[in-house]
C-alpha cells in the first residue's frame, strides 16, 4: 500500500525519496537550524511534506546550484526557510526554478523577496526590532505546529488501532 503524499515519512523514506543517505539528513538538521522534523518521544523523526521540500531545496542549492554550506546558510538568513522550501517544491515537481538576483548586489548574491516592509500603520519600531518580534512569533507558531503535528500523529495512531 502506498502512502498518501501528505503522510509523514520516516528518515529512511525521506532519504530514499531524496536519494540521499540518512546521515546527510541528520547533518543538515544540525547545519541548517530551519530543518526540524517532528520527533516522537524516543527521538524517531517524522518528516512532513514541508520538511521534504525544505530538504530538497537544500539539496538543490548544494548539488545543482553548487552553493557552499555557508552560501545556503546565507540564503536561509536573507530569504527564509519558505524560500528554500519553494525551490525544493519546484525541483521535486520538475518545474523550473531560479534564484532571484538583486540589482544592487552582484549577480551571484540572492535577493530577499521579503526585504520590503509591508506598508501599514506607522510604527516607532526599527526594522531590526520588528524582525526580532517576527522571529519570536515564528518560534511560537512553530511550537504550535509541532504540537499539532504530534496530535495528528496520535489521532492517526488511534485510528489505525481502531481499524484493526
Rg on CA atoms, Å: 18 Å
How many strands, what sense, and barrel or not for the largest sheet?
2 strands, antiparallel
Say how many strands there are: 2
The poorly predicted ranges are 102-122
Regarding CATH, which class of the largest domain? Answer: Mainly Alpha
Please, how many helices? 6
| Protein structure class | mainly alpha
Side by side, the strands of the main sheet go 1-2
CATH topology of the largest domain: Multidrug-efflux Transporter Regulator, Chain: A, Domain 2
Oligomer classification: single chain
* Overall geometry: globular
Measured distance between first and last alpha carbons: 16 Å
Helix content, binned percent: 55-70%
Strand content: under 5%
Please summarize what this structure is.
This protein has 164 residues and is mainly α. The protein has two domains: 1-115, Multidrug-efflux Transporter Regulator, Chain: A, Domain 2 (Orthogonal Bundle), CATH 1.10.1660; 117-164. It has helices at residues 11-18, 22-31, 49-64, 69-79, 81-93, 127-163, and strands spanning 38-39, 45-46.
Amino acid at each position: 500500500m502506498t502512502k498518501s503524499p501528505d503522510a509523514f515519512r520516516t528518515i529512511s523514506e525521506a532519504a530514499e525519496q531524496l536519494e540521499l543517505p540518512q546521515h546527510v539528513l541528520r547533518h543538515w538538521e544540525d547545519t541548517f537550524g530551519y530543518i526540524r522534523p517532528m520527533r516522537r518521544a524516543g527521538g524517531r523523526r517524522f518528516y512532513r511534506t514541508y520538511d521534504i521540500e525544505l530538504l530538497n531545496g537544500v539539496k538543490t542549492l548544494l548539488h545543482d546550484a553548487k552553493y557552499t554550506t555557508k552560501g545556503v546558510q546565507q540564503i536561509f538568513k536573507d530569504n527564509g526557510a519558505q524560500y528554500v522550501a519553494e525551490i525544493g517544491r519546484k525541483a521535486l515537481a520538475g518545474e523550473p526554478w531560479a534564484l532571484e538576483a538583486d540589482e544592487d548586489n552582484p549577480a551571484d548574491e540572492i535577493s530577499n523577496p521579503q526585504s520590503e516592509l509591508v506598508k501599514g500603520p506607522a510604527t516607532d519600531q526599527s526594522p531590526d526590532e520588528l524582525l526580532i518580534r517576527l522571529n519570536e512569533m515564528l518560534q511560537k507558531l512553530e511550537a504550535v505546529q509541532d504540537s499539532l503535528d504530534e496530535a495528528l500523529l496520535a489521532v492517526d495512531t488511534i485510528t489505525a488501532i481502531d481499524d484493526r
